[in-house]
């Protein structure tokens, strides 16, 4: 169970980083400051900073507000994050191998009566 939680945590960290990167890249492309974005999005500075640093994922409302400030859509940001994740398949392949290995170990353990 702890192994599965670790894999889930890694996936969340990757998603946080990808969304943060998409937001930051879009902001820089639009030549905007962080202050311009969080002010336009009507978000506290600290909240926006945590989102752009990848420390937390924005909820839907905040993602919509940030997207609007960056002249895009939440779907646009998510699609950019998804592309970013797809560009680093070796990480996801490693996670998939680890997940498969953990699943195989659980099945083998059940067969041996260890679980």
Notes on the structure:
By secondary structure, the protein is mostly helical. It is built from six helices and no strands. Helices cover 77% and strands 0% of the residues. Helix 1 (2-29) packs across helix 5 (74-86), helix 1 packs antiparallel against helix 6 (89-111) and helix 2 packs across helix 4 (60-69).
Shape assignment: elongated
β-strand number: 0
In round numbers, the mean pLDDT is 81
Oligomer: single chain
Amount of beta strand? under 5%
Total count of helical runs of at least 4 residues: 6
Structural class: mainly alpha
Q: Ranges with pLDDT <50 over ≥5 residues?
A: none
Rg (CA only): 18 Å
Helix content: over 70%
The main β sheet shows up as:
none
Our measurement of the CA-to-CA distance between the termini, rounded to an integer number of angstroms, reads 12 Å
Run of helices and strands: HHHHHH
Feature tags:
single chain; 115 residues; 77% helix
Topology:
Elements: H1 2-29, H2 34-40, H3 45-52, H4 60-69, H5 74-86, H6 89-111
Helix pairs in contact: 1-5, 1-6, 2-4
């Amino acid at each position: 169970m702890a192994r599965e939680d670790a894999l889930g945590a890694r996936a969340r960290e990757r998603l946080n980083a990808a969304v943060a990167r998409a937001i930051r890249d879009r902001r820089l492309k639009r030549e905007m400051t962080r202050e311009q974005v969080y002010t336009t999005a009507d978000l506290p500075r600290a909240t926006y900073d945590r989102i752009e640093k990848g420390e937390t994922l924005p909820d839907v409302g905040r993602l919509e507000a940030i997207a609007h400030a960056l002249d895009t859509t939440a779907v646009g940001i998510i699609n950019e994050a998804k592309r970013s994740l797809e560009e680093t398949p070796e990480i996801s392949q490693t996670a998939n191998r680890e997940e498969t290995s953990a699943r195989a170990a659980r099945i083998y353990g059940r067969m041996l009566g260890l679980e």
